Structures are given as C-alpha cells and as structure tokens.
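Milestone M4 deliverable, item 7.
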Amino acid sequence: MSTVLFIIPCLTNQLPKSWESKIASTPLEPVYDRFLHSSTSHKTKHFTLQDALTEYLQLPDNIAWARCGLHASGIRMRSNNWFKLSLLTKIGVTSLRGHMVQKMAEDFASDFAFAEDSIVTAQGDWFISLKKYNDVISTPIWRARPKDIDSASYGLTGADASYWQEQFNHAHEWLKTYAYNHLRVRQKYEPITDFWPWGNGENHEFKSDVEYSAIFSDNAIVRGVGNSAGLSFFPLRNSTADFSQMVHNHPNICVVDDRLISKVSDDDLLGWLDARSQIANMLLAPTLTAVDQGLITNVIIDTVNGEKFLYNKKFKFVLSRPKFSYSYLPS
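Output delivered:
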C-alpha cells in the first residue's frame, strides 16, 4: 500500500481577513473538488509546519535546523552554530529569489560586521555564523506567530541573547530605509519589516522509524531534517511528474509545499490563487491519476490547520462530503 502525504501550509489557514470574500467567491479547482469528494476528514494537532513535521518524521527536540538546511544545500558544516535568517513582513515570513537575497546580504554586511560571515544559497536561504556569541537559544520560525513576534527579544534566550537582540534591533531600523523596500511598496507588496534569527540547536543527525522513505520539498531546511530522519530528499518543482517511477523507488512519499506562505506574507492574493492552482494541477492531479492506475492507494492532504483529508477510492458512501475550512488572521 503506497501513500503520498501532502503538507501544504497556508492552503486554508493564516490567511488575511481582507481575502475572505474573494476566496469565498472563487471556485476551487476541480481537482480539489474531486479529491474532497472521495475523502474523509480527520482532526489533527497540527497548527504549524513544525507540528506536522514532528509527528510524521518523529523529530526530536532542539534540532539544528540551520545546519540541516545547509547540508541539504550541499554545504557541509562541522558546527551547529548557525542562524537561518528569515525575512518578515507584518503578516509573516516571505521569501525572495536567490540573487535578491544575495544583494541584500551584501548590503547588510557592509553596515553590520557581524553579518560578514554569511552564506546565501542559490535558492535564497540566508545563514549567519554565530561565531563566539553562540550561547543562545532561538525559536523556530514556525513557532513564531505574527502576533507573538517581539522585536525586542526575537525569541532569543541565553547568555548571548542580548548581543543578538541589540544587533537585530539595529537591523530592524536599517530595513526602514532600505531601498528595496521602497520598490516592494511600489509593486504593492508588503515591505520587509524585520529579520528572524533561528535554527541553531544540538541535533542534526537522528534516525527515525517512519513510514515515509522520501521527502520532496523546495525548502532546504525541510529536506535537511528529512535527510536527518533517514529519508531520501529531493527538490519539489518538476520532481513529481513521473509518479510511477517515484512510487517504484519510494512507496511512501512526503511532499511539503510551502509556496503559499510567502504569497500570504506579501498580501498577494492573486499570486496565492495562482499558486493554489499550480499545486492542484501540477501535484495533486498526477497523484490522483496514479491512484486510478493502481500505483498509489492513499493520498493525504494535511492543511496544518488542525485537519487532514484522506483520499481513498474505496470511500464511496459518506453522509457528508468534507470541505476546506478557512481561518483568517485578525484585521
């Protein structure tokens, strides 16, 4: 029995309140309707991406997320003392193309000496060495809700927390006059208002006894923790075209698609609708075709909104068909 698990944050949760009427009036793609028609709904305790990953991959506490992400990007490090630097709008975490992050990192390092020892990957992941100021505990970005983000503390504790808090408080002011933010505003995107330093920890190698044998994601940190849990790991885009080959090599697959997060954080409704359609047509549709061909038995979508949906062709008679339940951020 083969299973494909999709974890898709911001498909139904953490959406801007101003989007509610447009989402209600925009029909779901037919593929989602087909999926829901033969699905059953099940409650979960997953309200962040970390919640879902922790259960499905049986992750330990205190993971060195940044080191895992560096390894998945082909950069081997001997130290766990690295921050992943996430970019925040007032809504949440956003992402930029690699060359744009590289330019920002260069501009940033010219004003902040502590950032000179940085690594920016081709995919736009930005990592900063803690150097000697490594007695600090950080909060994974998935645990930091927008309403909980405190720019005074940045979720940091420990003897060296005050050093980093001082640096990023200055960085917060730097962003207010950063030229790229003016461009974002002209393009109707939310400006980048802050950084979130996180991802240092103790555990970077751990083997878990999980039912999934491969993880597909464009998020390097997700691929990295999958690898640390003993799964084969692959980038997502264009990797899921041949499901017959995938299932032949890896009977149970975990697919983490987080492309919707940055659309929400940028307050880009049209981009979110387009990305939702891409997920339906490029990922979910070929998966359901593989079910029809007998290659896959179960398909699961975990919305990271306290609910997952299990699709199985054997489910033909149910009292009521499940629907996606949307949750919105306060105005």
